[in-house]
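Pasting as-is:
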Amino acid sequence: MIPRSGLFALLLLLALLAVAAIVVPQLGAVWWLCVAGIAVFMLVDAVLAYRSPLPDVSRKLPSSMSLASWVQVRLTLENRRARRQLIVAVYDAYPQSFNARGMPVTISLPAGQFVDIAYELRPTERGPFTFPATELRVASPLWLWWRRVRVPLEAEVRVYPNYSTIKKLLAYEVDNHLKLAGVRMSRRRGEGIEFHQLRDYRESDSLRAIDWKATSRMSRLIAREYQDERDQQIVFVLDAGRRMLARDAELSHFDHALNAMLLMSYVALRQGDSAGVMTVGETRRWRQPRKGMDAVNGLLNHVYDVQPEAVEIDYIAAATELAVRQRRRALVVFLTNIREEDSEDLRVATNLLRRRHLVMLASLRERALDERLQKPVGSFEDALAVAATSQYLEQRRESQNLLRAKGVFVEDCLSEDLPAAITSRYLAIKRAGML
């Protein structure tokens, strides 16, 4: 039982009466009489509160949520047993890492009726979470107590990477959406890797595209049309080490890398390719490349609960493991954050993979570095910070240029630019027939 404001008002009145009894001793008997009366009043109200029927409560929430996105949760309270109106304070026990709007809430629940309560939650971490119960505080009939009741309403929910981009892609054609997202796709006619169809010759077609046998049969110019080769494989290598713990806004670099992986894998699957993933770090997982649009859900379920840990990543060991697991030629996309001290290990690792695979290295650059260079220099300490940042970035660029010279595709960008950057590079590789 939890005291209500009415009980505090009675106790305050009793305290005032005690002060008056000290000043006027004749009021002492009256004070004791009030103490006895209030005690009986409190006891009767507590008994009535315990004997009063409780409302029924149910919760409706989605089985899965998207990271950093608001979702609505609905609670339904029904007063089927009590013959009077109930005053109920509702405290839903949501996970601690969630942000909430509209909770707790106090409602009036008329007899024989129900009330719907809606509030919003915003998860800030990925993984499986449990909603254990809902706490109700029902006001006693005489308004002196809250009766506290914990109603078990256990529910499981999974928080996935932010797949709002994937949802948008489902509503539009891929080409149009990618143009809006900053992904560059160069259109071409009559060239490609795999034969697609025969069609009438157009003025913009190359003479090499003319199929002379079909032209002779049809008595008009017929051109061959090609399409990009399908059934190729993409393997993402996700760095789950300490460097991916860095955050841009509310999301870690690892979460931004997951979002980029989802967009590129969606595009690759729409292109007829297959996508797989390997995580390196404290948690090591492997999912071989698979085709079909259901593979996006498979990737989500495979990595949604992986969290970056404060461990160092062994790039050479990761490349060796991948070389054993992935025997067929593939585009290997490393999603990580490289530093100048990684250059030698990355050189060995990428040389090992390039014997069979095409390698893309996508490195997330900390936003704080760019912001430091943009700040005005107002002191000697500011000048030292700018000089150190410039030197660090220059060393980073040199390391990346060495990898590019070895035939590795390197994308170094901020978190919001990563999805479009790696997807554009993938499409360019496809169009060039390099994979």
